Amino acid sequence: xxxxxxxxxxxxxxxxxxxxxxxxxxxxxxxxFTARFGPIIPADRIHAAFEDGEVVGxxxxxxxxxxxxxxxxxxxxxxxxxxxPTHRRRGILRQLMRAQIDDIHERGEPMAxxxxxxxxxxxxFGYGVASFSGNVEIPRDRAAFHDDFQVSGRVRFLxxxxxxxxxxxxxxxxAERNPGMxxxxxDWWRHRRLADPVWGREGGGEMVRALLELDxxxxxxxxxxxxxxxxxxxxxxxxxxxxxIGDSPEGTREIWRYLLDIDWMARVRAQLLPLDxxxxxxxxEPRRLSFEYRDGLWVRLVDVxxxxxARSYKPGEPVVIxxxxxxxxxxxxxxxxxxxxxERTDAEAELTMPVESLGSAYLGGFGFGELARAxxxxxxAEGALDRADGLFRADRYPWCPEIF
Length: 404
Fold this sequence. Notes:
The protein has twelve helices and 21 strands. By secondary structure, the chain is an alpha+beta fold. It has a seven-stranded mixed β-sheet with strand order 1-2-3-4-5-16-6, with helices on both faces. A seven-stranded mixed β-sheet has the order 8-9-10-13-14-7-15, with helices on both faces.
């Protein structure tokens, strides 16, 4: 049977996401799923694989603005990728990735990125692991800060609709500072991030939406839920921090002080924190965090020239990179990268690497020296690794606080 790959039509939305829903144990998307995803993913950004009119695989894209060193870039947030187990090992995923990458390229989105369901899956399509992230858990009685900072600000609870505008403004400012963090639209806030379905609570209470104000202005927010339990009258539950973001070091410190001080909870848990999160150095006893990390973002540079020229660089001497890219041949060749940007060149190569390695370094999560030690980059000219690391160094570690 032949496989037909094409973009979905609006009326096909519930049908074309069936392959990925299968792996979440749901044979059919329900009305709640459609209401959450329909407003935030254009139907024509979902490519579906059809066999005799039946959907057997699909892959979608959220059109994002995403933080990179120096600002924001248009990016494709790859999501809802799946092929039914009845149609594995037939090359359908490769066909979907081919159609998707070509569409991203034609739309002028220089970068694609994703959270990988399997960490060995996307490297063959040019994605490189670009960050690690991790989960923490800390006993409240060991959560003292290293200094007795004076408590400041006021925290108040917001209703869902009331939270959209201040949370949007704080998170957008954070995305401009944090590589890898996409800007959430107000629709995204309403239909996805602030959605609180019972099935997503994992035994906890309703989502709490807390806003911190400093000098009367919105400065930080936290989304969390309480998991109350007790033994012999002694509380032993935990606060589950879904997300906590501030617009300044003071805002971040104060919202975390608030979260760590919530009564009747024995522990505080948080997920998807970056490796340079302020909490590690705010705490007097950081080893109490029990940090457990995993791979985070995976980045694919779709248009290398546009992507390299969109980000900023630190001062330093330029370096010439020989790039290979079997899946997107238009990126292959030699690139001179310097403080003023990037351009094609015929100069002698000083570093050579596949496109996935450049994706790993693009947001600043990994240095070229690290990649070389792992056999992912080869140095052809002495000192080239140091020059490249100096140019690509970022002020913040990549962070995306939400799996999309």
